[in-house]
Amino acid sequence: MRTAWADGPEFITQCPIRPDGSYTYRFTVDSQEGTLWWHAHSSWLRATVYGALIIRPKAGSSYPFPNPKREALITLGEWWNANPIDVVDEATRTGGAPNISDAFTINGQPGDLYNCSSSDTVILPVSAGETNLYRVINAAMNTELFVSIAGHPMTVVATDASYTKPFTTSVIMLGPGQTTDVLVTMNQPAGRYYIAARAYASAQGVAFDNTTTTAIVEYKSAGCSSKGGPGRPAMPSLPAFNDTGAATAFSKEIRSPSAVELPGPVEEDLFFTVGLGLLDCQPGKTCAGPNGARFAASMNNVSFVLPSRLSILQAHKSGVPGVFTEDFPAVPPVQFDYTANNISQALQKPVQGTKVLKLKYGTVVQIVLQGTNIVTGENHPIHLHGYDFYILAEGFGNFDPKTDNAKLNMVDPPLRNTVALAVNGWAVIRFKADNPGVWLMHCHLDVHITWGLAMALLVEDGVGELQSLQSPPVDLPAC
């Protein structure tokens, strides 16, 4: 709160930290507990620059569930047998899609199902009868992931550092940027059991990494060595790669623990289309995207372009003109059948720009996020910096206020910072704009933000010091 300088995305709230430079992120943890994470926000550096940020209950407080016997991290990553920066740079040069990853990882290791990696497979020791808390983070670059533990149901108790109404499931699905905390009781015969994760790939005809990463839950009484015992561990049953039904069923189960006091009434009612697009190739050249074009992505037909000489927040705070404009559209500039199978090519080309949408401090904002089927429909994990928001409803097809407003959950909607926008579907989110600064909203599939699937909210200062952005720190990286 009030420290947008510590948010991190390059050219949004700061210029990048220079080679051999440093910058200290200073912020106050207030009214939050649970599992979050930190990561680089410059090009594709976050492919390997990330880690967990765990906020435990205050001294004298406890979890809203029985204390687990032990806690462990399950951090999901994505690995290329190449420099990830080279991968994205090549895609930018050709205009095509980047090469898919070579592996997924759990806590930095691919696991038993890849060549030459079984000796380093992550092992989580357990004892029979105990209940453990596993904090699952999807730090993968471009892939939503199904996760399951063989023989062991999981009870979901939190997502994105907000507690949930507990429910039990055999599989969870996380988009990049999302976290899920689960309780698991070790009540199976002593042995070794795989934790496995593989892709949820919702886009039709698009290449994806179809490998499976594993770690091992090992009962201490199983009598197996950590390097392997008699037989391979039990493997869980994971949904099919394109099982949208499984992803949707999991998402619909997530609720706040009890009735919430929603911000209201709504003062800014926004409608953002989300999806892919195409841009013309350079004159005289043929690019690697469909029909010789370049891949692009947009929100409300605006493909976001990062500034290059100053961050948006610095330009806003210092009154420097020419870095951004304040004309991001509050509704789509053209209305059409967003999820139709044959969308006109005239609607495929977005406008490039560095546009923000300005909000007055304290405004209650409701946004309909509408997926589109331009180029292809896909599940998009949409993340908003600086805020948690309530997810009031999710659905498929085109959002229709005449019928879909009646589906809004006004009692116990989940509070999250990333919503998995269903393939060719919609979601409705609500929050109060009480954190001044410039806040990026983007798809957490990093190939999509590379193509421009992002926008920024500029929340103005309110009245007095406690409603105003703090001054920039002295060590803010120079541009």
TrEMBL record:
Example of a GO biological process term? lignin catabolic process
| Cofactor binding notes | Binds 4 Cu cations per monomer.
Q: Which GO terms describe its cellular component?
A: apoplast
Q: What catalytic reaction does the record list? A: 4 hydroquinone + O2 = 4 benzosemiquinone + 2 H2O
Q: Which residues form a coiled coil?
A: none
Q: Which Pfam families match?
A: Cu-oxidase, Cu-oxidase_2, Cu-oxidase_3
GO molecular function terms listed in the Swiss-Prot or TrEMBL record: copper ion binding; hydroquinone:oxygen oxidoreductase activity
* SUPFAM superfamilies according to UniProt: Cupredoxins
Family of the protein in this entry: Belongs to the multicopper oxidase family.
Q: What is this protein called?
A: Laccase
